[in-house]
Design a protein that fits this description.
The structure holds two protein chains of two kinds.
Chain A (H helix, E strand, L loop, with lengths): L1 H11 L11 E2 L4 H7 L3 E2 L3 E6 L5 H12 L4 E6 H7 L1 E2 L1 H4 L9 E6 L2 H13 L5 E6 L6 H14 L2 E6 L11 E8 L7 E9 L5 E8 L4 E4 L20
Parallel strand pairs in A: 3-8, 3-9, 4-6, 4-7, 7-8
Antiparallel strand pairs in A: 1-2, 9-10, 10-11, 11-12
Chain B lengths: L6 H5 L8 H7 L10 H15 L6 E4 L3 E4 L11 H15 L6 E2 L3 H9 L4 E2 L5 H5 L11 H10 L4 H5 L3 H8 L1 H11 L15 E11 L2 H22 L1 E12 L4 E12 L2 H15 L9 E13 L13 H19 L4 E6 L5 H4 E5 L11 H11 L7 E13 L6 E6 L2 E14 L17 E8 L4 E7 L7 H5 L6 E8 L1
Parallel strand pairs in B: 3-4
Antiparallel strand pairs in B: 1-2, 5-8, 6-7, 6-8, 9-10, 11-12, 11-16, 12-13, 13-14, 14-15, 15-16
Helix pairs in contact in B: 5-10, 9-10, 11-12, 12-13
The chains are: A alpha/beta, B alpha+beta.
């Protein structure tokens, strides 16, 4: 009886595997990929929050580096675009994005933004959707719907926030990103993984390499002790 | 002064042109309503919209008339008389008094309706119709009518048989032109108020429909009819309009645009589903719609596409799906909110990469970016920021005069200490146009990439050059060059 229930549960839980594409998006750094269980899960919702509003550009760069998808939809609230600026075509090349394949949507209300994200996730041709939200709290029901829509189509859904969110989240991973001083032309990010469904948390300093179009580890990882929870599969780094 | 009177007032002997005081003296119990020309014009437009159900060729005949071209439409109502009866019944139901006249030319019909000879006149009867009417029935200037009256010519019949050249010499060419047009000797096409759509499909209902599902079902059927017509010509629809006519006379218009020419009824239906969802409250069916018309406002050639046989998605199919997504989002949120990035040929950063609505027709499918990348590689442009502010924000900066990068600056009440700076990159306005082709004028900008202590990177510029200022200008209070923040890097 329990076995049957377990099998039914597994059948209901959707695993995001596209035909031909891997279920995970590896970052190319062994430590982070191990923590994430192979890489960033496709077909799931992830959150990237900036340390503070001034660091939003760094968070944007980090999000773009994570996504590195061919077809991207960027949905932002009007306020976000007015305060932090619009994506600039010539600057997107550095992150491996072709401006001609980027579609931007300016939403008047958060409701419109979440609806547009869901619509975009349902479209099979879109590889990733970035939604830039200004408000600090999002309806749990809407988050769940976005996760389901992402799992259905296997696309990556990313929520970009301007301040570290205070509520518990149902996202697969949550990152808090800030800018880090760098002497070279390549940008550096201080990325902190504060929620991870598949493994331990951590903080790393990453450098984006324009020529390779991937992240590189700038300093050794500093693992952060995860909060105590009763999860048998967790490893402590 | 009185502009218009109703029947009761007419019977009492009042007419337009009388002074109000005089009319009040004659009949103290008058009800006078102030004239509102704008509201009257709006009302005329509404009635014109209403008359679109009979024919798309409707022209305004200000201030109180309409001209309809019903050639070819009358059979849908079972004949001209039935059409006139239907139109008259609806207008009377709305509470207006009217006269309707049908004739072979615009001039003759108008003259008949305005000067008291309503009815239906077949082509060829214009002479007989117009002869007894006064000369002001032809659309002439009042000065010409007065001049003709002075000579003793009061009716159209008087001038019809006169020799033409003396008339033209004395009263101008307009007189004979209007006469020829009214008689049908010169063709006068009707100038419709709204452009005529190349493809139209319409449906009338015996029972008015009000539910959204019914409207969508009708829409799909109409789209299917249009599909035949479009396919025959190899066209697709870029802009569609659904016109719904309510039983009480209101007209609702819903338009939708597409990124690429559409023919498939299912896709057209999907577009309008979003449009209707966006309209929600404004879509007020009242007592129901009794006629629906789907018109293609803009049609473009749409060559038949090759469907790939092999499995998996190729780039063209993916492009099509993204376009459909853009259409759905535009239909729901508005076409200005769904944008693409276009590279334009300008050095000024906010113009070089522009945000255009995704549905607008693009000259180049790749939006000019490969050309830009090639230019950037050749010219060795400095890196550009990831996010650009829509308007550069003024900052307070401390920098070495005249050319140095900023040492520290204050932006949005936060002080930033600059650790490293790269630049300057000089971008000057277009010297050949008056304001440099840019709202802020022809000021040269020196751009710097700066990094502050925490690793944040900004794109700042100094607007204006010190070398352009003379000492005397500064002493007199001319503005020193100012610093702005334009964008942020990752």
């Amino acid at each position: 009886m329990i076995e049957q229930l377990r099998q039914r549960l597994q059948a209901l839980q959707k695993t995001a595997v596209l035909d031909g594409a891997p279920g995970h998006l590896p970052l190319g750094i062994a430590a982070i990929d191990a923590a994430l269980g192979g890489g960033l899960t496709r077909g799931a919702l992830h959150e990237v929050a900036a340390v503070s509003e001034g660091h939003l550009a760094a968070a944007t760069g980090f999000a773009l580096g994570l996504v590195s998808s061919r077809r991207l939809l960027w949905i932002a609230e009007d306020m976000a675009l007015a305060e932090s600026g619009v994506p600039h075509g010539p600057g997107l090349d550095a992150f491996g994005l072709l401006p001609e394949q980027l579609l931007t949507v300016a939403a008047a209300r958060p409701h419109d933004l979440l609806w547009a994200m869901e619509e975009a996730l349902r479209c099979r041709a879109i590889g990733a959707v970035i939604g830039e939200l200004r408000q600090s709290e999002i309806d749990m029901v809407m988050l769940r719907r976005l996760s389901l829509a992402a799992a259905d189509s296997g696309a990556l859904a990313l929520l970009l926030r301007a301040a570290p969110p205070t509520d518990a989240s149902t996202a697969a991973t949550r990152w808090i990103v800030g800018a880090s001083p760098s002497a070279t032309a390549s940008p550096r990010f201080a990325a902190q993984l504060t929620r991870n469904r598949r493994g331990p948390l951590g903080a790393w300093i990453l450098e984006w390499s324009d020529s390779d179009e991937r992240f590189l580890l700038a300093t050794p990882a500093q693992p952060v002790a995860a909060p105590a929870l009763d999860r048998p599969h967790r490893q402590v780094a | 002064m009185i502009v218009a009177v109703d029947e009761a007032a007419e019977r009492l002997g009042l007419h337009a042109g009388l002074a109000l005081a005089q009319a009040r003296a004659m009949h103290p119990a008058l009800e006078a309503i102030a004239e509102d020309a704008e509201a009257d014009a709006g009302l005329l437009e509404k009635i014109a919209d209403w008359c679109l159900r009979y024919t798309p060729l409707v022209a305004l005949d200000a201030p109180d008339g309409l001209t309809l071209d019903i050639g070819g439409c009358a059979h849908l109502y079972g004949g001209e008389q039935q059409l006139v009866a239907d139109l008259g019944a609806r207008i009377a139901q709305a509470g207006f008094a009217y006269t309707i006249a049908i004739a072979g030319t615009i001039g003759a019909a108008r003259a008949a309706a305005h000067f008291g000879a309503p009815g239906s006149y077949t082509g060829g009867e214009e002479r007989g119709l117009l002869a007894p009417l006064p000369l002001s029935a032809l659309r002439l200037a009042p000065g010409t009518v007065a001049a003709l009256a002075r000579v003793g010519l009061k009716r159209v019949g008087d001038i019809v048989d006169l020799p033409r050249s003396p008339l033209t010499a004395r009263f101008g060419g307009e007189l004979l032109r209007q006469l020829d047009r009214a008689l049908g000797l010169e063709h006068e096409p009707l100038n419709p108020r709204l452009p005529v759509a190349p493809y139209v499909a319409e449906q009338r209902f015996a029972e008015p429909i009000a539910r959204e599902e019914d409207v969508l079902a009708i829409l799909t059927r109409l789209a299917g009819r249009l599909q035949f017509a479009l396919e025959r010509r190899g066209d697709g629809a870029r802009r569609l309009e659904l016109t719904l006519f309510r039983t009480d006379g209101e007209v609702r218009r819903i338009a939708a645009g597409c990124s690429r020419p559409l023919r498939d009824p299912a896709q057209i239906r999907a577009l309008f589903v979003e449009r209707l969802a966006a309209l929600a409250d404004a879509f007020d069916p009242g007592f129901g719609f009794d006629m629906a018309r789907l018109s293609v406002l803009v049609a473009e050639p749409s060559p038949p596409e090759q469907i790939g046989i092999g499995g998996g998605e190729n780039a063209a199919e993916a492009d099509r799906q993204v376009d459909q997504l853009a259409d759905r989002l535009s239909a729901r949120l508005g076409s200005r909110r769904v944008r693409r990035l276009i590279a334009q040929d300008s050095h000024i950063p906010e113009i070089a990469a522009a945000n255009m609505p995704a549905q607008a027709a693009l000259a180049a499918a790749d939006a000019g970016w490969p050309a830009f990348r090639q230019f950037r590689a050749e010219a060795g442009l400095a890196p550009r920021p990831l996010r650009l502010l829509q308007r550069p924000e003024p900052i307070e900066a401390v920098a070495e005069v005249p050319d140095g990068p900023p040492l520290r600056f204050r932006w949005r009440r936060a002080l930033h200490e600059v650790i490293a700076a790269e630049g300057p990159e000089r971008i000057e306005g277009a010297w050949w146009s008056e304001h440099g082709g840019h709202p802020s004028g022809n000021l040269a900008r020196d751009y710097f990439r700066v990094e502050d202590k925490s690793g944040l990177r900004f794109w700042l510029f100094r607007s204006g050059l010190y070398r352009d200022l003379m000492r005397e200008d500064l002493a007199q209070g001319a503005a020193a060059p100012t610093w702005f923040l334009h964008g942020t890097f990752a």
